[in-house]
Structure formats: structure tokens, C-alpha cells
């Protein structure tokens, strides 16, 4: 409606200007100079009125956009004018101003809502620009670091120089663990960095969480599971010894004391010998079990050196060919890049790979088209890894959390210490080992190095 009225106003004024110009020319050529002067004056006035009309409309629109730009929503245009088109224009601008103001208020409320959520979040959040300035830090991060206010990462140097060095070098999509000690308590901080872009500027969003409590709970849970397994294994060994000992004791001790040698028969002596052999065997198993426990606790510190990943995997492949005598399992080796080198203890990592490969080989059983793939490469985060993958039946979901517990095993033979040793070796290397498995889709063990 507004544009239609303005359009009609412009057409009318242009028609009047054109008519005045024609009459001016007509009377001028008729030598009626008084009338031509009159229409000249009319023409000039009409032109001035047109310019004023356009400027008035343009100024209102310019004022309106300037007010919106400066977030000034107090600007109001009069809606009672003699000119209908301008009155409608003012009304429309006022309505648009009210709508934008409402949207702006909703946006501000929403922004305050999200900011309050971030401020009250149980994890620390801060954003850092390329120059190290901290643009935002919530209350949690200030409590974790016991420092307020946080404006620049150089302030971390006053908290702990190692913490400053960590923040100075942290890269996007990188995770770090840092132990912070102060006069109040010790905190185990987990840091995760993510790259974001705001208003065309690259920022680093860092999330910090105190995982000390979670680690304590995890450690307690691990001890409970370990004690459960140890109790189970020891009881399985001790129970037969106790039972057989009681049976043999009955041969030699009666109600009236020790039994006379003359009362023994050949069967009792034979059973005694058999029982003692079982006791000896069970005792040997228990000794072997304890020795396994001792070897788990006394792993030597890794003697690291640069090792060719290709040569390492080829060596493991050669060792596994001795296990895969019938050749029913297809072994594959893949290394990218070919010249990849790992800074590791070759003996310990070879032990890990052989153990994981044997487990994979045993899980495949008589499966057709059985395959084990040993691969090594570099992750997107720049970390080197070795993966042992098989297309076996997978690990049941209920056992995934148990397989790294020392002495836990689902096999009829074995000590159940292999995977826990593998995890301990990777821990000593500053790395990690993770399992990914799905029933009927295979299993993958990934060793990642720091």
C-alpha cells in the first residue's frame, strides 16, 4: 500500500512537471512571456517539491536504518500527516521497527540464557584467539584454576609454568591430561580443544574438566573387579586342595587319633599318592598364577628407539606364520606412509602384537575367509598407531569392559594376563590401547602412541 501511494505521488508530480514544461514552451513560442514566466515559476516550484518529497522519504529511511544499525529502537515517525503516502510510510517504518526490536530482545534473551547455561556448566569453558587473549571464561574454569579474572593465557604461568606451556602448544582436536596441584587440592584436568570461527575470526574453544573423581571411581571399580577375579582364581585352586587334603586326612586319622600303619591297604596308599599329585599340580598352578601377577607388576621401563613400522609388522607376520601352519587365515600388512617410524621398545610392542594376533587367530577358529590385518599409520590428530583387526565373531558387549582386567579370561587355558599386560605396556609408552568390536562384524585393537 505504501509503495503504491508513493508511486502514484511520483507519477502525479512528474505529470505536473511535464505539463508545466509543455505550457512554458507553448506560451514562450506564442510570445506570451508573462504566462511563460508564470509556468516557469510553476515548473521550478514543482521540481523543488519533488526533490523535497524524495529527500524527505530518503531521510526517513536513512534515519531508520541508522537507528537499526546502532540498535536504537526509540525512533518513532509521526503517523498523522496531511500527505497520505508519507503517513502510511511512517506507519510501516514504525511497525518494522517494533518487529525488529522484538526480534532483537528475543535474541538478547536467548543469548543471556545460553551464557547462563555456559557459566553454570559443570565443566570449564574458555575461548582463546590467535594472540592468546581469553575472550570468554566461565566460572567453573576460574574455580578449577583458582584464578580470576582470566584475560590471557600468560596468566597460567603464575598458576603453573607447565600449564602455560600446555595451553601455548595445544592444537585443535587435541586432548591433554594435566595434574594441577595447589594449596587446596590436587586436580586431574582433561583438556579438549576445538577450532571455531566467529565473525570471520579463528578461535580455539577449550573445554576443561576435573576427572579426579571419575578416575577415583574408575580405579575403585578396577580394584573391585581385580579382587573378584583374584578371589575366583585362588578359590578355584584352593578348593580342590582343601577337599583332597580332608579326604587323605581321613585315611590317617580316626576317632581315636592316628590310624595304625597295619590298618592301611594298597587302595588307600594309591589314593593318597594320587591326591598328593593333584595337590602338587594345583600348587604349581597357583605358583604360576602368582608368578604371572609378579611379572605384571614388574614390567621394565621401555627402552625406546626408532623402529621401522614396516619391518616391525613384517617381523610379527613371520612369527604368526609359525602359528598359522595350515594357512587357513589370510594375514595382511599395511603401512602408510611406507617410511613410517615408531619411537618404541621393539621387544615390548612385538610382544603386544603377537599376543593380540594370537587372540585374533584363536577367535577365528574354523571360519571361512578368515582374515587378520596388521596396519600402521598416522591419525588425523597426528598420532601414530598400530591396529590389529580380524573378521571374527567379535566380543560380546557384556565382556568389553572386562577384557583388560588382569587374570580375566574366557578361555579354558591361559592366565588372562595378556591384554592387561598389553595395556600396561602401552601405558609405560605414554600411549593407549582401545578395542572396537561388534558381534559377527569383527574386532579391532588400536594401539596409539603419544
| Count of discrete alpha- or pi-helical segments spanning 4 or more residues | 11
Specify the structural class: alpha+beta
Known CATH architecture of the largest domain: 2-Layer Sandwich
Overall domain count: 4
**What is the CATH T-level topology of the largest domain?**
Heat Shock Protein 90
- Percent helix, as a range, is 40-55%
Any idea what the shape is? elongated
Mean pLDDT: 80
Strand order of the largest sheet: 2-1-5-4-3
- Number of E-type strands: 14
Report the CATH superfamily of the largest domain.
Histidine kinase-like ATPase, C-terminal domain
List the secondary-structure elements in sequence, H or E: HHHEEHHHEEEHEEHEHEEHEEHEE
Percentage of residues in DSSP E strands: 15-25%
| Overall radius of gyration | 42 Å
Largest sheet: 5 strands, antiparallel
Please mark out the parts with pLDDT under 50 across 5 or more consecutive residues, or reply none.
Answer: none
The CATH class assignment of the largest domain is Alpha Beta
| Straight-line N-to-C gap | 69 Å
InterPro entries: BphY/WalK/GraS-like, HATPase_C_sf, HATPase_dom, His_kinase_dom, PAS, PAS-like_dom_sf, Sig_transdc_His_kin-like_C
GO molecular function: ATP binding; phosphorelay response regulator activity; protein histidine kinase activity; protein kinase activator activity
EC number: 2.7.13.3
Protein name: histidine kinase
